[in-house]
Amino acid sequence: RCNSPFPSPFQLAALERQVFDFLGYQWAPILANFLHIIIVILGLFGTIQYRPRYIVVYAIWTAIWVTWNIFIICFYLEVGGLSKDSELLTFNISRHQSWWSENGPGCVRKEASMSGIKGLDGHSYVSVIGCALEYRYIEVMHSSFQILIALVGFVYACYVVSVFTEEEDSFDFIGGFDPFPLYHVNEKPTNLLFKQTYL
Q1: Long-range contacts formed by 46-51: CB under 8 A, 24+ apart
Q2: What is the CA radius of gyration of the chain?
Q3: Where do the TM regions start and end (predicted)?
């Protein structure tokens, strides 16, 4: 039996992604990450409990997960008419952006009061300057890393399923894996056994 094909980096990467999406109120990625965490746990359970079907579910999910992360990369790089400034990832509920847009490496956040402008009293204008790396590239790197991990997980899950299948095919349901069973069946016909008892 194999060890788990889902080592801690799989879980840590999913949790890390979930935390930063929560901080940025990115609702679509939050739901996708939540589903991803559940499927990873299901894959772990399938490996530990010798349930190849659960691992197959994980392998299928990795294909969906890769597709989702490719979409995120296209979204932040504004490929095919997508715009990183749209509210697509927040389901048009809020105008929040990626947490990294204001908290990236080297970013300095400045707030300017909007008092005096009708309808905007009490609000502030936020400008971010000095970022060493634009936030969309950080999101692209996050998604690229998720794709890499998903591909490794897919290959390893396929390997584990094949090992489990081979074990099932080679398993002797009477004698286990041992080609010579520990017990012996008496092969004498029953009529000979009766004759011996009466003699």
Answers
A1: 47/2, 47/3, 47/4, 47/5, 47/6, 47/160, 48/4, 50/1, 50/164
A2: 29
A3: 27-48, 55-79, 145-164
pTM for this predicted structure: 0.72
Helix, strand, or coil (residue 185) = coil
Q: Say what the pLDDT of residue 180 is.
A: 46
Largest pairwise CA distance in the chain: 118
Q: pLDDT digits over 135-169, tens only?
A: 999 999 999 999 999 999 999 899 999 988 887 76
Per DSSP, 182 falls in state S
Q: Tell me the backbone φ, ψ of residue 172, rounded to 5 degrees.
A: -95, 115
